[in-house]
Amino acid sequence: MEKKKKEDYLERQRILEEHKKEKEEEEKKKLKDKHRNEKAKDNHRRLVKEQNEKREEEKRNIILAKINENDKKVEMTKNKLEVQRMEKAEELLMKREDREETVNRIARMNEYNKEKLMERIEMNNERSKRVQLEKEALLETRHKLKKEAGLQKEKVMKEFEKMKKKGKFDVMFNR
């Protein structure tokens, strides 16, 4: 009888040890799954961030290319106007004998230069406004993307917590 009790006791101890080992293995597996999921989320966040940064860089490059193109056009127009101004000045000098005509031409040339200068100023103002609007749009887009990313992250974390609380998380990974 004493031997039977001892055997039963040892058998219960062995079963308890097996249950304990199984539980430890299960905990290790859960922890490993959790680390794997966190690493996957980190990789996903990093990839999304890199994609967003790449898009922002592309947008910046497009805007800078447009600005450079506009600057080149302005410079070409400025040079062209300078050549025209010089040609007109030479022409006026050659026809110096007619003073009245020369005075009229100088007046017309001054008016022309004034108009062109006003056009250039207006063009520069428009370009500045356009650049400012594009910059504001870029900042607004960046702000929206950041806000959306934050909301998305918050949503994912809430869903993760819900699944974790309901135990669905373990079921998903034990399939």
Count of all domains: 2
Q: From the structure provided, what is the oligomeric state, counting identical versus distinct chains?
A: single chain
Which class do the helix and strand fractions yield? mainly alpha
Overall pLDDT score: 86
Apparent shape: rod-shaped
Fraction in helix: over 70%
Low-confidence stretches: none
Biggest β-sheet, characterized?
none
Supply the number of helical segments: 3
Radius of gyration: 39 Å
Describe the structure.
- With 175 residues, this protein is mainly α.
- It has two domains: 1-42; 58-143.
- It has three helices and no strands.
- Helix 1 (2-94) runs antiparallel to helix 2 (99-166).
- The radius of gyration is 39 Å and the shape is rod-shaped.
